[in-house]
């Protein structure tokens, strides 16, 4: 499976399609577990599309992208990492409820200060970027290189969407210290 183009309906195409559907399904499933109403979705495009249009778009994306090895492996890698990140706090989001979690998280963001918060998330992204870069630089084949680029893509997604989410949350909610009394 070292060739970069996979002929439609060939064995390698079906394998890549299965991997893509699994990876995107993990991302969707973990998102649904965390935020069934998409109130906490960090990606504004995904929130705007909603579940039905998002699923349709992703089915088409998977079917088309499965023929192209490098982007398919990159997207699969990024999707699995995003799903793992979603699952970190999905239990908390689900147990608190989307609105209550959003208000609570906004209060914690107000208490912590933007510099500390962004420093932590950007450092997280930088560490994933460095791992992805190490994989790319040490890889001996196209699949390993594609996995490395998927890790790098995840690092950029963490930094971009977390920054966007924090910015939107700080604008939408204001912390009231009187609530702690």
Write structural notes for this entry.
It is a single chain. The protein is mostly helical and 181 residues long. The chain has one domain (11-180). Helix content is 80%, strand content 0%. It has helices at residues 11-34, 44-65, 69-96, 98-112, 114-138, 142-172. The N and C termini lie far apart (62 Å).
Number of helices: 6
Determine the mean pLDDT.
Answer: 92
| Alpha-carbon distance between the two ends | 62 Å
Number of strands: 0
Proportion in helices: over 70%
Strand proportion, as a percent range, falls in under 5%
The profile of the biggest β sheet is: none
Order of helices and strands: HHHHHH
User: Structurally, how many domains make up the residues?
Assistant: 1
Shape: globular
Structural class: mainly alpha
> What would you report as the Rg, rounded to the nearest angstrom?
18 Å
């Amino acid at each position: 499976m070292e060739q970069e183009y996979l002929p439609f309906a060939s064995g390698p195409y079906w394998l890549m399609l299965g991997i893509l559907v699994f990876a995107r399904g993990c991302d969707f499933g973990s998102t649904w577990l965390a935020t069934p109403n998409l109130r906490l979705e960090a990606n504004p495009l995904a929130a705007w599309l909603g579940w039905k249009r998002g699923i349709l778009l992703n089915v088409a994306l998977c079917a088309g992208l499965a023929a192209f090895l490098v982007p398919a492996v990159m997207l699969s890698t990024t999707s699995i990492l995003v799903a793992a990140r979603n699952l970190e706090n999905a239990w908390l989001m689900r147990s608190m409820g989307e609105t209550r979690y959003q208000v609570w998280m906004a209060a914690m963001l107000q208490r912590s200060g933007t510099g500390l918060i962004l420093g932590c998330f950007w450092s997280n992204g930088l560490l994933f970027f460095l791992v992805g870069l190490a994989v790319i630089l040490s890889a001996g084949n196209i699949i390993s290189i594609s996995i490395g680029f998927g890790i790098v893509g995840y690092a950029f997604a963490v930094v971009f969407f977390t920054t966007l989410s924090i910015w939107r949350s700080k604008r939408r909610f204001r912390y009231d210290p009187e609530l702690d009394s």
